[in-house]
Design brief:
single chain, about 55 residues, mainly alpha, elongated
Length: about 55
């Protein structure tokens, strides 16, 4: 969830970095996608696995 939060901050413009805007947008999108991927992996590994036991 941390990656998603940081990605939203970057995309929203609340996190000021000395990077050109196109790269900030790309960074924000990548962070949100990586956070979604990690959340899905957590769900599959722990939550879904516990439901089958």
């Amino acid at each position: 969830m941390v990656y998603i939060g940081i990605g939203i901050f970057v995309l929203g413009g609340w996190l000021k970095l000395a990077i050109p805007p196109i790269y900030l947008t790309l960074l924000g999108i990548l962070l949100v996608l990586y956070g979604a991927f990690r959340s899905y992996r957590f769900y599959v590994k722990f939550i879904k696995n516990e439901a089958h036991e």
